[in-house]
TrEMBL record:
It is a multi-pass membrane protein. InterPro entries: Cation_efflux (IPR002524), Cation_efflux_CTD (IPR027470), Cation_efflux_CTD_sf (IPR036837), Cation_efflux_TM (IPR058533), Cation_efflux_TMD_sf (IPR027469), CDF_Transporter (IPR050291). The lineage of its organism: Bacteria, Pseudomonadati, Bacteroidota, Sphingobacteriia, Sphingobacteriales. Belongs to the cation diffusion facilitator (CDF) transporter (TC 2.A.4) family. This is Cation diffusion facilitator family transporter. The chain crosses the membrane at residues 7-29, 41-61, 73-97, 109-129, 149-166, 172-188. Pfam families: Cation_efflux, ZT_dimer. Coiled coil: none annotated. Residues 8-202 form the Cation efflux protein transmembrane domain.
Length: 325
């Protein structure tokens, strides 16, 4: 079993146990706020189950129907988890508002606080573990599940504080108010997760990855790499896909062009922390490139070198050569 599968299986088993514990706390106390936490635990279990299946798919090798692999299913997994979190948030808000207007009898709140506090600590450690493994293996699914559990841990901590305040003050309507606040917090986190997953499903360019690649190319640029443009990067599971155009001297033969592109491929794969597949289109230089081309002893130069154009996010991501003076 792979590290990712083992991590998400731990999350699934823990989520089931904690869900049962939270519902026990709810039946003891009849607290809307505790029901809020228990209802979100159902989402944790469903999300972890789907995440386990997504990680299984993401580890399958490329095939004829999936030439880019199956890693993109992780974005769908994160989307489903975000939607489930949002649904839980809406249900919690409806139940809490109803309780605020019509009242709700609670009891044995300290016992409930002890159970919720213990589940929050467990979620904190499991969430941290999932995020650590997810970052190490570039798994969006594990990171999303880990952040979800951290969110659950934070809401549990707020819930415990609220329960103690209710018990000390005997202001029972605070139970519904705390539940509404936690419901809004859950709803906001569901939106953030859904937004990130939709960006991945729509092939939204990963700006952080592009910036990392641009910095690497600028730091190690060679004389023959006249410019780089139309650079884009997408992540599919643990795999990173980059495509770009590189302008090379037009008199290079095919073998020389191949070597230059291979050098760029090796450079990026050695510099970034994940497996990277590059699609590089070679463009021939034009006379208008001469003023920023640093090729020495160029027999076809039409204009003297005047200054290097530094590669940055503004010019490298545009679909045009760098003719600016």
């Amino acid at each position: 079993m792979t590290t990712n599968k083992r991590a998400i299986l731990v999350s699934l088993c823990v989520s089931i146990i904690l869900m049962l514990a939270k519902f026990v706390a709810y039946f003891i106390t009849n607290s809307n706020a505790i029901l809020t936490d228990a209802a979100e635990s159902i989402v944790n279990v469903l999300a972890s189950g789907f995440a386990f299946y997504s990680i299984y798919l993401a580890t399958l090798p490329k095939d004829e129907n999936h030439p880019y692999g199956h890693g993109k299913v992780e974005f769908f997994s994160a989307f489903v988890e975000g939607v489930l979190i949002g649904v839980a948030g809406v249900v919690i808000l409806i139940k809490s508002v109803y309780g605020l207007f019509y009242g709700n009898t609670v009891s044995d709140l300290f016992d409930g606080a002890i159970i919720i506090g213990a589940t929050g600590l467990i979620n904190l450690f499991v969430g941290w573990y999932l995020i650590k493994i997810g970052k190490a293996n570039s798994s969006l699914t594990l990171e999303a599940d880990g952040k979800h559990l951290l969110t659950d841990a934070v809401s549990s901590a707020g819930l415990v504080i609220g329960i103690i305040i209710i018990q000390l003050t005997q202001v029972l309507w605070l139970d519904s108010v705390i539940s509404i606040i936690l419901g809004l917090y859950i709803l906001y986190n569901g939106y953030k997760l859904t937004r990130k997953s939709v960006g991945g499903l729509m092939d939204e360019s990963n700006i952080e990855l592009v910036e990392e690649v641009v910095d690497v190319l600028q730091e190690h640029r060679q004389q023959s790499w006249i410019d780089v443009h139309n650079l884009r990067a997408q992540q599919y599971g643990a795999d990173l896909h980059i495509d770009c155009h590189v302008t090379l001297p037009y008199y290079f033969d095919l073998n020389k062009v191949h070597n230059e592109i291979s050098n760029i491929d090796k450079l990026i794969n050695n510099a970034v922390s994940r497996k990277t597949e590059l699609f590089i289109h070679a463009d021939p230089c034009l006379p208008a490139c001469c003023h920023y081309c640093k090729m020495e002893n160029c027999a076809v130069r039409t204009e003297a070198f005047k200054g290097e154009i530094k590669w940055n996010m503004e010019n490298v991501t545009k679909n045009q050569k760098h003719f600016a003076r």
